[in-house]
Amino acid sequence: MSQPASRLPLLQRPSWKALAAHHDEVRQLHLKDLFAGDAGRGERLTLSAGDLFLDYSKNRVTDRTLALLLRLAQEAGLEERIRAMFNGEKINATEGRAALHVALRAPAGSTVLVDGRNVVPEVQAVLERMTAFANRVRAGQWTGHTGKPIRNLVNIGIGGSDLGPVMAYEALRHYSERSLTFRFVSNLDGSDFLEATRDLHPAETLFIVSSKTFSTLETMTNANSAREWLIAGLGGDPKAVARHFVAVSTEAEKVTAFGIEAANMFGFWDWVGGRYSMDSAIGLSTMVAIGPDHFRSMLRGFHRMDEHFRTAPFAENMPVLMGLLSLWNTNFLGAETAAVLPYEQYLKRFPAYLQQLTMESNGKHVTREGRPVEYQTSPIYWGEPGTNGQHSFYQLIHQGTRLIPCDFIAFDHPLVPLGRHHDLLLANVFAQARALAFGKTAEEVEAEGTVARLVPHRVFEGNRPSNVLMADRLTPAVLGQLTALYEHLVFTQGVVWDIDSFDQWGVELGKALAMSIIPDLEGGAEPTLGYDSSTNNLIRRYRASKARSPG
Ligand SMILES: O=P(O)(O)OC[C@H]1O[C@](O)(CO)[C@@H](O)[C@@H]1O
């Protein structure tokens, strides 16, 4: 009896083989030909989902490519896996956990089961506590140890406990309470903490220690420095900690051991992965900044995209389609990276946020069963806001030797109109996508009167794929939809690649080695170094330098 396609290794699935053969047929096709052969392509290969509009016409795909990619998703059992995620099944198999970030934005009154328990009431209860806290701080009613109202909030966290909060704060700054100051400290490098707190007064400062595990080296080191800074700045009274620290964590005992009162802890659950946690209590700083109503609106945006992903047929499903197009670029066209280029300054941290979401999720080398993959998994995500990138790395995107698919993100309206700025900005989005796709031939360059020796330098091959993603304007709801779009794109790819998108074992080895090296750097006696000769030498050199000039 033949096996169902989803049981076969990816490279042996009929749709993969068909895509490989198809790729041989279409590899020479230029986007110019595709557009010339279909006058309606630019309108046809578009899609709306919620408030988002996607133009994917400038991808190097034919209708047959798309049909085969959709078949690939079907053969991977994507439908069933989506159902499994939304049903709270333990799809993060290596950690034995559900991956149920969709429950964080499920409407009050709905049901999402984890181990037979409806988690929606717990999620809503935490949101209510966050709301009460946010309202108190925003109204100046949360006072510090000396009785002064809190005016500065410093989120201490790293990875998913930092990138989501920073990204959302920057993205929604327009909606933010301007009388409050927000800072984010993540790096173990002490200068991060020092610079973030340099101009703050401890009496008016509250730290949000955000850590799912409450044991991450960076976060706990920064939290301890924050406690020392606070106590020293408030006359040495350790009791000050209670009014100036709150925690977001799943680890109540560790939080109270640090000195934070249980009443000032906001919980979440092991079924929320760090990089999927910005709409849990990890988003506390976001809620204080933009207010509970805007935060709820962001959650509704996430939920809107969740519902689209859960219910839309694959051919009209934005995350599925974008996930498959990116997979086509990666596995068949050989793209190694993907650029995310927001033409909206407020989204300046969105590429950094996406780096963790995409690469920590799908940077995997074995299948769910632990067999080595025989294909590339996550591309390397990177990017900068336009138009800054244009005057930096776009040269390589246009004329370099690598294929770099681009996601342009733009809005019909700016949040703050200023003269001609927005028309000029949008003209650049449309121009860049067009230039990448269609390029400029030697004949066109010659026709402009260019001297012969410069012609090759001024030729643009084109045929470089891109998506253009647009919405009316950057609102909290749109940010929710945009973020959920990429979350589900990552999920789609992980299912096809047959990898666990929700674990992150790859960060463990370096962490463990650092822990063993710390005593070698801090100890007084000469350590017996048992590492490789390079590591031994680096440690000796560092110790000698420290001994010559301590501090
Ligand atoms: O919230 P925690 O437990 O401090 O972890 C922070 C980050 O560390 C990681 O576990 C590894 O980088 C991320 O997945 C997570 O977002």
Q: Can you describe this structure?
A:
The structure is a single chain. This protein has 551 residues and is α/β, with parallel strands linked by helices. The chain is 46% helix and 10% strand. It contains 22 helices and 13 strands. The strands form three sheets. The chain has a six-stranded mixed β-sheet with strand order 1-2-13-12-10-11, sandwiched between helices. A five-stranded parallel β-sheet has the order 6-5-7-8-9, sandwiched between helices. Strand 8, helix 11 and strand 9 (265-267) form a beta-alpha-beta unit. Helix 4 crosses helix 14. The protein is globular, with a radius of gyration of 25 Å. The N and C termini lie far apart (71 Å). The relative contact order is 0.13. The model has no long low-confidence stretch (mean pLDDT 97). Residues 158-161, 211-213, 216, 219, 274-275, 360, 504, 507 line the site of 6-O-phosphono-beta-D-fructofuranose (F6P). Residues 158-161, 211-213, 216, 219, 274-275, 360, 504, 507 line the site of 6-O-phosphono-beta-D-fructofuranose. The active site is at residues 360, 391, 511. Its main location: cytoplasm. Pathway: Carbohydrate degradation; glycolysis; D-glyceraldehyde 3-phosphate and glycerone phosphate from D-glucose: step 2/4; Carbohydrate biosynthesis; gluconeogenesis. Its EC number is 5.3.1.9. GO terms for molecular function: isomerase activity.
Q: What number is the mean pLDDT?
A: 97
The general outline is: globular
Q: Which parts are unreliable, with pLDDT below 50 for 5 consecutive residues or more?
A: none
Helix content: 40-55%
Bound molecules: 6-O-phosphono-beta-D-fructofuranose
Ends apart, CA distance between termini: 71 Å
Family: Belongs to the GPI family.
Keywords: Cytoplasm, Gluconeogenesis, Glycolysis, Isomerase
Main location: cytoplasm
Organism: Geothrix rubra
